[in-house]
Amino acid sequence: MRSFEKGYSILFGRSPKRVALYATALLAFLAALKALSAQRAPLLYALFGGVILLILLSADRAVINPRRSYYVAVISTLVVSFFDLLFQKAPLTFALVGAVITAVVLQSLKCRSFWYIAPLVAVSAIYYAVGELYLFAISLIYIAVLQLTRFVINQIVRGLDAMCMFSSFIYSVFAEDDVLEDAFRELGRLERVPLHVFTIGGRHVVVVSDFHPGPFRHIGGGMLVDELQKAVEGMGYSFTFLHGVGSHERDPVDGESLRRIINAVKSALAYGRNGAPPRGIYPQSHIVGDVKVVGLSLGAPPYLAVVSRVNSASDDIPTWVSRLVETGAYILIDAQNKFDGAVQWREEDVASLSKGLKALQEAPQCRVFKIGVGKVSAHHLDVLGYEIGPAGISAIVGECDGARSLLVVFDGNNLHSELYNKIVDTFESRGYKLVEVVTTDTHRATGIGIGKGYRIVGERIDHGQILKAIEEAVSIAERSLGDHNVDYKRVEVEAYVLGEEGFRKIQDAVRMYKKVGVLITAVVFALPILLISLLA
């Protein structure tokens, strides 16, 4: 599952506006240098960029607006000027390389169209006009090369236009928008997925979502936690998100699916009731084999069965695992709180989970149950939200017949083990019967961390500062502790998700890119550079 996230970490970790700004400044500098040996160089590069801009805008103004077009045109022209200067060639000698970049981007924006040929045709005309007949022939041949490359790659990954997706990844450098959703949308399948909405004391909302908050930042469900946070808090509530069942097969594939989820939660809150006096179960923790299950209450059934791991990594609870176990009066919560270890769900792990859930069913009901919720922003700790997102840090304190439990929730994707242990030790030493720490599994910043594809909570932020923020959230929760009414609603949302088959195809594509990604890059980008440097 993690290979799915880290496979594209470099491309998704860039700011397109910043890239375009730097590219413009560098292009002006390189053009000025080139003008020392070829006075018309700035004019020629401006004309080339203008042609690229015109082609992009002509393809589809609705999809390829001036902002997007400028991003692509300036990068393409910069690459041409760089190689012209590097190899000491005449201006626009490497125009084919810039045209190929534009062609790749056009493939992502207009996957079913042949508009990607247009920049290659334009460059062919340029080469013909200046008498570079070898380069004229190469640019025409490259039209067939790109089409053949696309055909071969798509044959390797059947059922998925892998070249179109590859082009979309390239385009993501230029624009943080929904273009990549087009590649995912084709894989989507319509599915009804549950969400559980708890309203505590009429003030705080906890949403347990069986939609997975992925796949990437700015793509579909990658912004699920962020958008729910805005919507719920915009209605005057405080908000906490918990991830339930499902991995990337439950990723919402586009913005429309995301809007359906948000509207369903808003409707549930708009027509909510005052709720009932809080009910709870005695907090329990059971370790069976490599599985840890913690039973907690939000003041109304169903209760929470927080699932983590002992030796393996604590990652998603796949839908196939949930189908094999009986949860009874509980709903499964993905703790996502241990990054180290193997990502695996073996037969014995499923059996251990089943035994742990069975043990939770024996938990006694509380005679008196109280609940309190506290929440603080982590913006001062992580301005960009790479480790802790806008939903911040929540602390949910439960008190069952005098025994207190604490659930700490970070708006992040997995957790540093040392930080986890510090939190548990700190609050258990203060008399808490049970302490558990989870993350929302948000994918808002997937693509930021080089290697694993994201930063886990506590990776770079000082642990002492995080503990101070938790102390504040817990203090708020303790002061608000009381017998607050709790309203519960289960809603089902019909939305397009990747599905197990779509997830498999994406994984196949990731494996394919690992095997032949260098070959694709060589054919699409390196080969024309080599040919031009030899023949021009």
UniProtKB/TrEMBL annotation:
One family name in Pfam for this protein: DUF2070
Protein name in UniProt: Membrane protein
Keyword field: Membrane, Transmembrane, Transmembrane helix
Domain (DUF2070) ranges: 4-531
Residue ranges of the TM segments: 45-63, 70-87, 93-109, 114-130, 136-153, 516-535
